[in-house]
Amino acid sequence: MDDARSRYLADAIATASPARLLTMLYDRLILDLSRAERELLDGDRGAAAPFVGHAQEIVGELIGMLDVSAWDGAEALLSVYGFVLRELFAAGASGDVTRVASCRALLEPLCLAWHEAADETGRAAIPTPREPAEPVGSGLLGVA
User: Fold this and answer.
1) Taking the complete model, does pTM exceed 0.90, yes or no?
2) Which domains, and CATH codes, for the chain?
């Protein structure tokens, strides 16, 4: 079962558009932060550590993917990622649930915004059917 699930996930990642990959990373990042927050609230730093660590890896990946020359807001987004990464390192070392929660609260609106942008990009890429300028023929398929 795990092998089939792993293959499915690998195929989903391999065939995903860049916009979809970004939203997948954000979704997993928010999930990791939520799980870490829950474990820290329960007082279990050991159980929270893998989630905080994975969140750090995802933020590192987001930093690596970001092309700061692509758009004007990229430098500001890079600053946000750097801040989040520093906060997650501190949270991992101290077990501070407040830092994890603040990172999640900061990233959730970005996650939503990237999903909306990906949806818009996806809609723009879908061709819209057009009516022919003139009838091309008779019959169901336009063939006489």
Assistant:
1) no
2) 17-116 (1.20.120.340)
